[in-house]
Amino acid sequence: MNKAQQELRKKSPIQIKNKKAAFEYFFVEELTAGIVLTGTEIKSIRAGKASLVDTYCYIVNGEMWVKGMNISPYFYGSYANHDSKRERKLLLTKREIRRLEDAGKQPGYTIVPTLIFIDQNGRAKVDIALCRGKRQYDKRQTLKEKEDRREIDRALKGNRF
Fold it and tell me: pTM here?
């Protein structure tokens, strides 16, 4: 991911993160994919009513799908409102899908969505990552580093003493 892409994500008003993924996995490779939405789903995402808890991606017939993503029904929607837990197709090139499929077949690797954001053109995008699972001691190390960073920040702000 280059600097320009990172700046665009920071400017996005909507950033729905999968915080648990960073704790559970090491990110090996990250990609940005478009997502196929229907009806009122984009309105719910713009309202921040989406969740990436317990989501994962899988590949079927050369197409990538995301399962478990929850986009709440739009409050002002009518009878044509969308199903909140349906599987959604991700838009990637064939080359990217093939590379992820080959890497995902290795034991211990999976593909997980990490972030939903709105790009500068108003489209919903999903950051996905090829991940390797952490072991228990890796998770403890992550918690320790997070706690150390928090203590350093407190000491620098002067709240410690």
Answer: 0.78
61-88 residue pLDDT tens: 999 999 999 888 887 777 777 777 889 9
Residue 79: phi, psi to the nearest 5? Answer: -65, -20
Surface-to-core class of residue 9, CB atoms within 10 Å of its CB (0-12 exposed, 13-18 middle, 19+ buried): middle
Return the CA Rg of the chain.
Answer: 18
Evaluate whether 41 touches 146 at the Cβ level (below 8 Å).
no
Q: Could you tell me which of 153, 108, 143 has the C-alpha nearest to residue 23?
A: 143
37 three-class SS: coil
What angle (nearest 5°) sits at the alpha carbon of residue 49, between those of residues 63 and 80?
70
Q: Which of 94, 126, 97, 91 is nearest to 112 (CA)?
A: 126
| H-helix or E-strand spanning residue 25 | strand 25-35
